[in-house]
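New to this. Please check both lines:
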Amino acid sequence: MKRIKLYEADDKMIDLISDNYSMLQGLGAFGIRMGFGDKTVEEVCVSQNVDCYTFLAVVNFVINGYVPKETDERISVETILGYLRASHRFFLDFQLPSIREKLKTALCQDDSLTTLILHLYDEYAHDIQKHMKYEEKTLFPYVESLLRGEQTSKYNAEIFSKHHSDTTGKFQELKSIIIKYLPQDSLSNNKLTATLYDIYNNEEWLLNHANVEDHIFIPAIRLLENRNKSEGISTRISDLIKYAEGGEAVSSREKDIIICLVQGMSNKEIADHLYISVNTVITHRRNIARKLQIHSVAGLTIYAIANGLIDKSCFTKD
């Protein structure tokens, strides 16, 4: 029986699992190995490089329905991403094939009805695989790009959220058919009952999985999107300020070129004056224009005066 409480970092991990055995699969998805003795949740997470806050957010959501605030920036997107990926692998590579094998054994008849039931199961399993493969091909790489500080206008969390289909009802028809029409002898009935129990458990797992995506992962992605946009705007503003102010963006040699240009020298005159080639002068001028976003001599004159490269009195009429 589940113990209804909010788990905290100083609770023992063994108590959490003993109260809620369904979290055993969650441990594996977070990459937490068993054999942790009497360590607390925080001690286990720290020793196994798992973000404790995010782990507890998922645990308390799945067990007690406690939904974190959508503005909670302490949720680790990296941790949730790893959790979802591992959950996919567990479900696609182990759970779905395992249930199919149990169902095949429970039916234990090589007839058309068995073939139809397995075909029905395969159809539902394919729908779930398709759903998860879409996330792995589209959503997860997008999130990874956000974590690298990249931003794209072609995809976002809202697009995923609008098309996030419900997979929890995929096995409803299959369960109904088994319960209504298939039990035969006692042995077969016991095997089918055990298989049904697995199907019901995995439906609950799918529901929890989808809810974690909707109520924890998607809000965390939105926060990351907004943070990247803000940082991008800040970077662009910083670049504009740097271009306007010049500062260290302009080298000493480039400052010499600017002074010469302001004084009205041609490229050849500058080359002779500074003992460099004309091509080198042209390269410096391109770099100056790129760094300062100034392309006219008048603009360079203002820059030179503002930054103390020349005395504005030189341009005062007598």
User: Anything to note?
Assistant: Residues 186-245 form the longest helix (60 residues).
